[in-house]
């Protein structure tokens, strides 16, 4: 998620790692193929506010690093 700018969209490729946080991210909807958008970063960069499946979720940067993404080719910043 580090490569995304506010307003950009990407597709989840995979959730890396093992353990309870990986399971929790999958339960929250971060599954391969789903579209996510970076809505906002907190002033110090942590946490991130993301939109997926019609709802907003906040993740710490450490949690977001477990999610591999693929940015859309036409990835213009959306308002």
Provide structural commentary:
- This protein is of the alpha+beta class.
- The protein has a single domain (9-71), classed as Ferrous iron transport protein A (FeoA) (SH3 type barrels).
- Helices cover 15% and strands 37% of the residues.
- It is built from two helices and five strands.
- It has helices at 20-27, 61-64; strands at 9-15, 35-41, 48-52, 55-59, 67-71.
- A five-stranded antiparallel sheet has the order 4-3-2-1-5.
- The longest helix is centred in the N-terminal third of the chain and has 8 residues, at 20-27.
- The two termini are 18 Å apart.
List the helices and strands and how they pair.
Blueprint lengths: L8 E7 L4 H8 L7 E7 L6 E5 L2 E5 L1 H4 L2 E5 L8
Antiparallel strand pairs: 1-2, 1-5, 2-3, 3-4
Produce a short descriptive summary.
This protein is an alpha+beta fold and 79 residues long. The protein is 15% helix and 37% strand. The mean pLDDT is 88.
């Amino acid at each position: 998620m580090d490569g995304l700018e506010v307003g950009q969209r990407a597709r989840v490729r995979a959730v890396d790692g093992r353990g309870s946080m990986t399971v929790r991210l999958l339960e929250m909807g971060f599954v391969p193929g789903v579209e996510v958008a970076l809505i906002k970063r907190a002033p110090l960069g942590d946490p991130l506010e993301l939109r997926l499946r019609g709802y907003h979720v906040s993740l710490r940067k450490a949690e977001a690093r477990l999610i591999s993404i693929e940015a859309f080719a036409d990835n213009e910043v959306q308002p």
